[in-house]
Amino acid sequence: MSAPLNLASRPFRNTRLPRLLLGLAWLGVLALTVLQAVLVWRLLPAHTEPQWREARRLESQLATMAQRDKLARTEVDKDTLERWSALQELVDRRAFSWSRLFVVLEELAPPGVRVLSLAPRVQGGSVKLELEAEARSQPEALELLRALEARPEFEQVYPLSMDESAGGRRLRCTMLYQQATEEGQ
């Protein structure tokens, strides 16, 4: 048997596999380049601004919470706390509008009733009033209580006592007084 006859001017080389591998490598590099371009595009400031705003908001919220936590852990001695309470009470008393209260009481008091004393106590934005009045008769004293209950400025009107006095009936009652704001006056 004789050797196969080769009429080619050059020897045959099979380059199909190396070309296929080279093409796949180029395709992989192209895919990675496109992926990198997409990632860079997403990192541009126009696309990351909402995330930065959210991060800044969360950082400020965290700082606020840390500050609140620090204030919550602040311990104050008893003397300082008493001074602060006294100062707060003075400020609350200063903000109390006596003239507005007198106008309201003058409008609602029946003719046979006179107010003897008023004792306001300001507590956390609400004013608790203790009122002592003298009426000529029991129906007039009860009329004062009804008039107080009917006014929107007064809530939780409770009589404490009604005693006989030289001038008629002496009435003591307690109530919550809602001070009108500047807009409401």
Indicate the low-confidence ranges by residue numbers.
none
Question: What percent of the residues sit in helical stretches (DSSP H or I)?
Answer: 40-55%
Separate helix tally = 5
The figure for the number of domains is 2
* CA-CA gap between termini: 126 Å
Largest sheet entry = 4 strands, antiparallel
- Give the structural class: alpha+beta
What would the average pLDDT be, to the nearest integer? 84
Subunit organisation of the chains: single chain
The CATH topology of the largest domain corresponds to Gyrase A, domain 2
Strand and helix order? HHHHEEHEE
Order of strands across the main sheet = 1-2-4-3
Q: What is the overall silhouette?
A: rod-shaped
Strand coverage percent? 15-25%
Radius of gyration (Å): 44 Å
- The CATH superfamily of the largest domain turns out to be General secretion pathway protein M, EpsM
Keywords for this structure?
185 residues, alpha+beta, Gyrase A, domain 2, 2 domains, four-stranded antiparallel β-sheet, 5 helices, 4 strands, 52% helix, rod-shaped
Describe the structure.
- With 185 residues, the chain is an alpha+beta fold.
- The chain has two domains: 17-73; 97-177, General secretion pathway protein M, EpsM (Gyrase A, domain 2, 2-Layer Sandwich), CATH 3.30.1360.100.
- The chain contains five helices and four strands, in the order ααααββαββ.
- The chain has helices at residues 16-42, 45-72, 78-95, 98-108, 138-150, and strands at 113-123, 126-135, 154-165, 168-177.
- It has a four-stranded antiparallel β-sheet with strand order 1-2-4-3.
- Strand 3 (154-165) and strand 4 (168-177) form a beta hairpin.
- It is rod-shaped, with a radius of gyration of 44 Å.
- It starts with 15 loop residues before the first helix and ends in an 8-residue tail after the last strand.
- The mean pLDDT is 84.
